[in-house]
Amino acid sequence: MTNPSNPPATGSNSNRVIIFDTTLRDGEQSPGATMTFEEKLEVADLLDAMGVDVIEAGFPIASDGDFEAVSAIAKRVKRASVAGLARAAIKDIDRCGEAVRHAVRPRIHTFISTSPLHMKYKLQKDPEEVLAMITAQCSRARNLVEDVEWSAEDGTRTEIDFLCRAVELAIKAGATTINIPDTVGYTVPEEYERIFRTVRERVPNSDKAIFSVHCHNDLGLAVANTLAGLNGGARQIECTINGIGERAGNAALEEVIMALRTRADVMPYVNNIETGMLTRASRLVSAVTSFPVQYNKAIVGRNAFAHESGIHQDGMLKNAQTYEIMTPESVGVSKTSLVMGKHSGRNAFRSKLKELGYELGENALQDAFNRFKDLADRKKIIYDEDIEALVDDEIGHAGERIKVEALTVIAGTMGPQMATLTLDIEGNHVTKQAVGNGPVDAIFNAIHALVPHTATLELYQVHAVTQGTDAQAEVSVRLSEAGKSVTAKGADPDTMVASARAYIAALNKLMVKRQKTKPEAMSGGATA
Q1: Under CATH, domain 399-523 is a member of which superfamily?
Q2: 106-113 and 81-87: which strand pairing?
Q3: Which of 2, 368, 374, 477 has the smallest number of CB atoms closer than 10 Å to its CB?
Q4: Residues of the chain with CATH 3.30.160.270
Q5: Angle CA(201)–CA(205)–CA(211) in degrees, nearest 5?
Q6: In terms of C-beta density within 10 A (0-12 exposed, 13-18 middle, 19 or more buried), how is residue 126 classed?
Q7: What is the distance, to the nearest Å, from the Cα of residue 524 to the centroid of all Cα atoms in its chain?
Q8: At residue 58, what are phi and psi to the nearest 5 degrees?
């Protein structure tokens, strides 16, 4: 990576970089990553607190739910600009303008395809028609808000002469930010840097706009291409937490930010991100999307600051810099940790929770502590991840109207598999026995008998929280009903118990969505 020589697109010599987070829009377009309204608000709050400059909150025209979420975030966020996405259509742009109008700094982000392939097959329009649409869409957006971003979809496969014409027209029509996205993850760093340099040099009014990078990871080059775009003069980075996004995902915010911080000697760009919140943001997005973070994921993966090799351990004991190019604390990971086990007391547990970023009330703390002690009696080693899963599960299930009270499962090769389940429905204990094609199917059949519903199971996913045969199981369940979809999680050393807790948690969420005041409205209160 060479030192940047071109000034930013604004014409100043500032190396200030705008961080544009699209976790709630492009990230949510990952298959299976849909978030609830409440989860979107929670993520937006954290992004704002972390110092993100622009939060792309959604695609308002896509659905009423998306419009409501973008509108609520626009009203809620205190510091960041709030953007909505809009196609090159009057209805899209007007709907987007309505959704973001209450933001401290509202932005309309509008786009159209510019590559020959997209224009011919996707748009079925000739280049001159597309240029006319660019002028119309940017003018329309600028009449609604002062901050307009225009994107050349599939920009890296666009002919450079046509790209320059399109950018010039977009700026002339009112665009204040120009995004040249690598929509399909096709480009390489040297080429991407050259695109930005060429466009900025050849477009006469390029100094009137800030240029932006938006890179997908289809070839594993999203972060490298993003940094190359900065060297080409871009001063806005579009990225997502954990790198989630369509197909192979987007450039990961945490990786870009820590690359800039760690290698400021060759990339002297500054931003407002509070890096100590990166791990917390990663865990939140992983939880609400039910997308686990790979263990060896850079910056926020479980093994990012773990050392097992004896040679590495020896070097770390002598000087941590021998094998760590950044400190764990710099990304929100505690360098030292208490070893938790069955002999640990309540104060030690409270201290560990604080170290992990949790502040619980007395009742919630006691409930979590009781579950921790039960887990410690059943498991030899308690890892930080065990405690996080336990507390997240406890928080996620707090206040539920329906709870798992008891579960017995009979399984084996002979069959049929059988489950006897007792639920607590607002203080009333009801029990049902059911059979199924496997123990999980039997459990879900028992739940259906006790809580009749029409929801469809769209996702059932199990993963171990830690290593070992005694690891806690974390189960994710997604249910859909009448066009509404919810995802919930359950954690327990017994996979069957975790499965029941996850399914019941999802039903509780559906009840909230249906605005029912009594569980019986869904369950019928069946008994056995």
Answers
A1: Alpha-isopropylmalate synthase LeuA, regulatory domain (3.30.160.270)
A2: parallel
A3: 2
A4: 399-523
A5: 70
A6: exposed
A7: 36
A8: 160, -165
Q: What does the pLDDT look like over 182-206, one tens digit per residue? A: 999 999 999 999 999 999 999 999 9
> Which residue bears the tokens 């030192």?
3
Where in the sequence of the chain do the CATH 3.20.20.70 domains occur?
18-289
Burial class (CB in 10 A: 0-12, 13-18, 19+), 265: exposed
Whether the CB-CB separation of 466 and 472 falls below 8 Å is answered with: yes
Which residue's entry shows tokens 């807790």?
A: 501
CB atoms inside a 10 Å sphere around CB 29: 16
Helices (H) and strands (E) in the chain, counts: 17, 14
SS3 59: coil
Return d(Cα 327, Cα 258) in angstroms, integer.
Answer: 11
Q: What are phi and psi of 433, to 5 degrees?
A: -110, 135
Three-class SS state of 9: coil
Structure tokens at 193: 């840097």
Q: pLDDT tens digits, residue range 348-373?
A: 788 778 877 788 888 888 888 888 88
* CATH code, 18-289: 3.20.20.70
Question: CA-to-CA distance for 413 and 411, rounded, in angstroms?
Answer: 7
